């Protein structure tokens, strides 16, 4: 027992302890908010599902920290094939969720016990591994900025983006795009390539509007600045969410006693609009606490990216940073009526077993970069 305790102490000594503290605080806050959200119908409560996902996520994160991230990345081809298989399986065998406003996303796999799993969430973690390895191999061969290889890097990112678009999950496709941009930029891809990409995107916008975007997506973009024009339809969620947030004022109306949360006035308040739950119940203070915790997490990811001893490690940290940053940006933009509704959850806080669990796996990879910063030949092995 003493031997195990000393090994555990050695393990935590080598990890990013401040990152652990922030993650534990985020976990506790998330569970507190979801405990207050009522569940209509049968099945497990939001709190219990989130708790199970967090526990599994932490177990997976610890396992990942014990493995050198370089060893995981050596099997990048297996990770890539598995990710493509997972999305294709979802496309053919997945569950389609039909929303009242025209959404028909086919992004979930049926699991035993009536549970579902969103495959693209795990693919995001796989992308950290495969794209980080791709960048690292090109740097070793001094081919990072050759036009052909920049095109291949872009193709690498377009594969998951295109596949999740076929699932009608364009919110996730955008997150992959942000991960690609941040990882490529931090690796040293020259600005001229990003300028060229920006020009191509600008030219393609009319094509995307006319031939790619669904009608409900166009309506969301046209209406989000004036949701009051359709208060019972496309504007309902943002109007209700904004009202809940503002009703909390400085310190909120109180946990478990806030009438709008208890009446489920805001559609999908446990997931996409969990920020409104914090706003009504804990007010401005509760909202600032969420933002503070997520910004601290992001800054710690940047610090670990800076401390990494190779491009592969720094790319993993930057990819995780991009994923959390983009999801936070778009989710808060939706809730504050600054961006159209796009089905992006608030990382770690929104309800969703597969999303939360996989985010913790990403946290485990970041910790692995911290622990195994030394050259693989000289680093000490834990729990031998």
Automatic annotation (TrEMBL):
<feature type="transmembrane region" description="Helical">
    <location>
        <begin position="46"/>
        <end position="69"/>
    </location>
</feature>
<keyword id="KW-1133">Transmembrane helix</keyword>
<feature type="transmembrane region" description="Helical">
    <location>
        <begin position="18"/>
        <end position="34"/>
    </location>
</feature>
<dbReference type="GO" id="GO:0008360">
    <property type="term" value="P:regulation of cell shape"/>
</dbReference>
<dbReference type="GO" id="GO:0032153">
    <property type="term" value="C:cell division site"/>
</dbReference>
<feature type="transmembrane region" description="Helical">
    <location>
        <begin position="282"/>
        <end position="302"/>
    </location>
</feature>
<feature type="transmembrane region" description="Helical">
    <location>
        <begin position="194"/>
        <end position="212"/>
    </location>
</feature>
<keyword id="KW-0133">Cell shape</keyword>
<dbReference type="GO" id="GO:0005886">
    <property type="term" value="C:plasma membrane"/>
</dbReference>
<dbReference type="InterPro" id="IPR001182">
    <property type="entry name" value="FtsW/RodA"/>
</dbReference>
<protein>
    <submittedName>
        <fullName>FtsW/RodA/SpoVE family cell cycle protein</fullName>
    </submittedName>
</protein>
<feature type="transmembrane region" description="Helical">
    <location>
        <begin position="172"/>
        <end position="189"/>
    </location>
</feature>
<dbReference type="GO" id="GO:0015648">
    <property type="term" value="F:lipid-linked peptidoglycan transporter activity"/>
</dbReference>
<feature type="transmembrane region" description="Helical">
    <location>
        <begin position="75"/>
        <end position="92"/>
    </location>
</feature>
<keyword id="KW-0472">Membrane</keyword>
<dbReference type="Pfam" id="PF01098">
    <property type="entry name" value="FTSW_RODA_SPOVE"/>
</dbReference>
<feature type="transmembrane region" description="Helical">
    <location>
        <begin position="314"/>
        <end position="339"/>
    </location>
</feature>
<feature type="transmembrane region" description="Helical">
    <location>
        <begin position="351"/>
        <end position="371"/>
    </location>
</feature>
<keyword id="KW-0812">Transmembrane</keyword>
<dbReference type="GO" id="GO:0051301">
    <property type="term" value="P:cell division"/>
</dbReference>
